[in-house]
Design goal:
mainly alpha; Herpes Virus-1; three-stranded antiparallel sheet; 5 helices; elongated
Length: 244
């Protein structure tokens, strides 16, 4: 749908009106036959038709093109009232800048930002509404720190809330202690397995060293026995030499 022609100040050229809704073009597209339409209007039309609503020439969505530049310029220069005119806004803007103004207009009806509140107020009155909104959040005046989200919460029991909070903290602490305990046990078990493996490796190395030592001692005894035998042979040879 286009912009309501009643919002515009002064004369609006016929060529800037949508051929379907007859309002001023919004987000316009142009057919090969040069008739112009609002994008929403022509897309809705082509769902059920395959021709131009003005001259009945065959058209397709793929043939639609943006409006000629000179027509876009004429369209953007049109002056119109803000849509919030009925609420008191007297601003008159060019069509090119009307959307930016209306997004920030102080007379726009906007919803309350508090969860659960269905009230809509003018943007300029929002701060005043938030100050008295029954759904506004605030801390308990008794100092317990509880956040009051609605009028019903104003009657909450501070002691009960604190007890609940303590129970939650206690449960959380117990869970954390149990998690830390399991983690420590897991680490100790891992270290214990590692130590057992290291002990087994060291014991094997010690056994191997003992075995090597035993072989070395056996070799030493053999060498000593051979040396004694050799010494005896030398002594015997020396005696024989003396006899000769």
């Amino acid at each position: 749908m286009g912009y309501d022609i009643e919002r515009f100040v002064g004369y609006v050229n016929e060529g800037l009106l949508c051929s379907i809704c007859r309002d001023v073009l919004e987000d316009p597209l142009q057919a090969p036959c040069e008739h112009a339409f609002c994008t929403a209007c022509i897309h809705g039309w082509l769902v059920h038709h395959s021709n131009c609503p003005e001259d009945r020439q065959m058209i397709d969505v793929s043939l639609l093109r943006p409006l000629y530049r000179y027509m876009r310029n004429d369209l953007n220069r049109l002056q119109l009232h803000c849509k919030n005119r009925e609420y008191g806004c007297e601003m008159i803007c060019s069509l090119e800048s009307i959307d930016r103004h209306e997004r920030e207009c102080e007379y726009s009806q906007i919803p309350c930002s508090n969860a659960g509140c269905a009230v809509r107020v003018e943007r300029r009155h929002l701060d005043g509404h938030l100050a008295v909104c029954e759904y506004r959040s605030r801390e308990c005046p008794n100092g317990c720190g509880y956040t009051i989200l609605s009028a019903a919460d104003a009657q909450h029991n501070c002691v009960a809330e604190l007890r609940t909070e303590l129970e939650l903290l206690r449960s959380e602490m117990i869970c954390r202690v149990e998690e830390a305990k399991h983690e420590m046990e897991s680490r100790l078990d891992s270290q214990r397995r590692h130590m057992v493996q290291k002990e087994s490796i060291l014991q094997n190395e010690i056994d191997e060293l003992k075995s090597q030592m035993s072989r070395v001692m056996s070799d030493v005894r053999s060498l000593m026995a051979a040396e004694r035998q050799h010494r005896q042979e030398l002594e015997q040879a020396e005696l024989e030499k003396r006899e000769l």
